[in-house]
Amino acid sequence: MAAPKCNLDCFNCPFPDCINDELDQSDWAEARERDAEVQVERDAANQKPRYQRSEAAKEKARVLSWWWYQNHKEERRVRDKAYALAHKDEIRMYKRAYYLAHREEIAAEAKLRRQEFGDEINARRKALREANHDEFIAKSKAYYDAHKDEINARRRARHAENPEVRRAKEKAYYDAHKDEINARRKALREANWDSYNARRRAYYDAHKDELNAKQRAYRKANKEKRRAYYEAHKDEINEKARAYREANKEEFNAKRRAYREANKDRINARDRAYREAHKDEINAKERAYREAHKDEINAKAKARREAHKDEINARRREARKKKKMAEQCLNEAGP
Question: pLDDT digits over 97-125, tens only?
Fold first, then answer.
């Protein structure tokens, strides 16, 4: 009669006692793994606080933890992911509450970490953004759209706390990275020109009165400041304006003509009203300008007369001829 054979299912053994007297390789591996797990549990139950352990005990704990993690990595990852998905809202609320309760401590730790590893962190973030640019932009926009009011309220509150300090920081950063920032803005505008203009036009149309009132109030309140800035940077401003007009002359003139043509009556009425209200001031300025630039004005007038001499003489002769004919008609008509 053949000897009964073990089915290796110890928990459901059909025999009253174990009949397997030999251990194969898998049994030894299972035993070692079970012993290691038991040892880990035993050490966890009996271990001293970390600061009271010897260096050898700390090293042993590190080795055992690393061994356990390497042998259960995938299992742990699957379990953690399932738990996170099942308790997503709870985890988010906990993290939010923890952050609010330890905000200053977290900010201080983050600041120290940035000071120590700032370049490495920035390089890693930049590489990640460049590799996933479209996804990054979409996520940022979705988050902003969902939390727009909260984000803007926080920004306004932070700005209201220390407006001068924040302005100084922003100006210092802009001055240090001016060319880079302007190039980035220009590239972004050119890539999204139509949507950019549409957004600006829509915002302006919706807030026209408010924006114009703000601009008028700002100009009125900072008249001297704006004048001082202009006087200090006059040549630079005029040079930029001339260069822009020269580079975009046709477009610039076409826009001005189209605007004047579309708003002719309003512009003429506004100009007349302004001249009427500031007549004396305008005349004084014009007289002062003519007096200060007399030679230049006379030279320009002389050059213009020389360039259009024949045309001017022809107009004068035509005017004298008409005047003479009018006098003859009056004399013939009699008293």
Answer: 999 999 999 988 888 888 888 888 888 88
Q: Is residue 304 part of a domain?
A: yes
The closest alpha carbon to 72, from 47, 96, 37, 104, belongs to 37
Sign, CA dihedral 250-253-259-260, equals negative
DSSP run (H or E) holding 129: helix 103-131
Q: How many domains does the chain have?
A: 3
239 lies in some domain: yes
Q: Find the helix or strand (DSSP H, E) in which 298 lies.
A: helix 294-307
Query: DSSP of 208-260, one letter per residue?
Result: HHHHHHHHHHHHHHTHHHHHHHHHHTHHHHHHHHHHHHHHTHHHHHHHHHHHH
Whole-angstrom CA distances from 93 to 81, 153, 235 are 17, 20, 58
Q: Which domain holds residue 154?
A: 147-206
- The low-confidence residues of the chain, meaning pLDDT below 50, are none
